[in-house]
Amino acid sequence: MISIKEVSYHYIKGKEILKPINLDIQEKETVVIMGKNGSGKSTLGKLISGIMKPKSGKILIDNLDMADKKNKKEIRKKIGIVFQNPENQIIFNNIQDEVSFALKGLDKEEIKTRIENSLEQVNMKDKRQEDLYELSLGQKQRIMIGEVLAKQPKYIVLDEPTTMIDSKGKEEIYQIIENLKKEGYTIVLITNMAEEMLLADRIMILNDGQIAEEIRKEELLNKLDVFEQYDIKIPMILEMIRKLKQEGIEIKVTNYSIDELVNQLKEIVKR
To answer: How far apart, in whole angstroms, are the C-alpha atoms of residue 19 and residue 40?
Structure first.
């Protein structure tokens, strides 16, 4: 479990970015963090991943305190982060060199196995011999996710991973996230993309450096006004279901997928 206790952050002589935050993220849970630019969501992601240190409070990863230097190595094994722009993370031209970068100290066979497995997880195994810089932005981002997966972390922070990617690339990454959820990874997804809230078990809305709202996936249809209150766009499928409800057509969905909606409408037509 990731446990965030009274964590705050501010720059030296600067604005307070995060006011004291308390949040527990359970194992195998996907938590989406949303909010307007400047709300503190990316700062929170960097604190969770250990890139930045809180000014007050503490963060525990499986009861290991991030502030304790003796836990640093163990925590690094447990958690990885992927950023918005994959080109800022690339070190090597060669894909295998890139993915194996964080695997120093392992024997050759273990490194080979991890490269194979991680590239398969992100559907990039067929590209392993290509020049990384010649790939599309979406493919580069999948390689960055693969590099994190090669470390076999328990927790993954995705900091706006699809912001710079086209719609096809977004869908490919959404599918990877769905697969990782099924495999039991704990995921923290920081985003401004409306559709990405549908990947969550829980959604945290940050406003002015604080958790303003906590919404579970099953509550989405009853909380659409909350998203509007914080100027967060609502996914198209939720808008469709809301309009159907206004017309007296009740739709019961759990995954909020187009297929699920179509099947519900088919059942209604049959009645």
So the answer is: 9
pTM above 0.85, yes or no: yes
Q: What is the pLDDT of residues 22-73, one digit of tens each?
A: 999 999 999 999 999 889 999 999 999 999 999 899 999 999 999 999 999 9
Q: Where are the domains of the chain?
A: 2-217
- State the DSSP code for 119: H
Count of CB atoms within 10 A of residue 186's CB?
22
Q: Which of 10-24, 61-75, 117-131, 187-201 has the lowest mean pLDDT?
A: 10-24
Q: Residue 184 burial (CB < 10 Å; 0-12/13-18/19+)? A: exposed
CB neighbours of residue 90 within 10 Å: 18
Which residues, 6+ apart, have CB-to-CB distance to 209 below 8 Å? Answer: 8, 16, 17, 18, 19, 39, 40
Burial label, 126 (beta-carbon count in 10 A; 0-12, 13-18, 19+)? exposed
CATH number of 2-217: 3.40.50.300
Number of Cα atoms under 13 Å in the Cβ half of residue 169:
16
